[in-house]
Amino acid sequence: MVTGISMTATGSGYTNAPYVLIAAPPGLPSTSIEVSHVRVTLHLIPGYTYKIQTAIDAGATWTDAGAPFLATDSNMSEVFAVSTTSQLFRVVQVN
Fold first, then answer.
1. Is the pLDDT of residue 72 over 90?
2. Which burial class, exposed, middle or buried, applies to 91 when counting CB atoms under 10 A from its CB (0-12, 13-18, 19+)?
3. Burial, 24: exposed, middle or buried (Cβ in 10 Å; 0-12, 13-18, 19+)?
4. Using CA of residue 71, residue 50, residue 63, residue 67, what is the dihedral sign?
5. Which of 7, 34, 36, 88 is most buried, most CB within 10 Å of its CB?
6. What b/e string do you get for 35-49 counting C-beta neighbours within 10 Å, with b at 16 or more?
7. What is the dihedral of CA 59, 60, 66, 68, to 10 degrees?
8. Do residues 49 and 71 touch, judged by C-beta distance below 8 A?
9. What is the pLDDT of residues 15-68, one digit of tens each?
10. Gap between the Cα atoms of 59 and 43, Å rounded
11. Which residues are within 8 A (CB) of 66 and not within 5 positions of it... i.e. 6 or more apart?
12. Among 52, 34, 39, 46, which Cα is nearest to 72's?
């Protein structure tokens, strides 16, 4: 944060008033994050059949991410490999 600028040797004879330009320092640090797997936790109703679907973004077509399965517990976690920068998951009841 710059809170003030003092000109100590202003010079003379300018046709325009001098100005000070403050720019970002060179070589800013950057971060790169790579995610290769994601854990999806499902909250289900035991006794019903579900399938997990995935899409690469909000406008994409949903595709099955495995075979339908019978829920035997109210909570289930599944780990998926991901290879895109954006991937969505949902669970759909099939019966």
1. yes
2. middle
3. exposed
4. positive
5. 88
6. eeeeeeebebeeeee
7. 50
8. yes
9. 777 777 887 777 777 888 788 898 989 999 999 999 999 998 888 899 999 999
10. 25
11. 51, 52, 78
12. 46
C-alpha distances (whole Å) from 41 to each of 21, 33, 34, 50, 85 are 51, 22, 21, 13, 20
Q: What's the residue count for the chain? A: 95
SS3 per residue for the chain: CCCCCCCCCCCCCCCCCCCCCCCCCCCCCCCCCCCCEEEEEEECCCCCEEEEEEECCCCCCCEECCCCEECCCCEEEEEEECCCCCCEEEEEECC
For the stretch 4-29, pLDDT in tens is: 887 787 777 777 777 778 877 777 77
Between CA 21 and CA 45 the distance in angstroms is 62
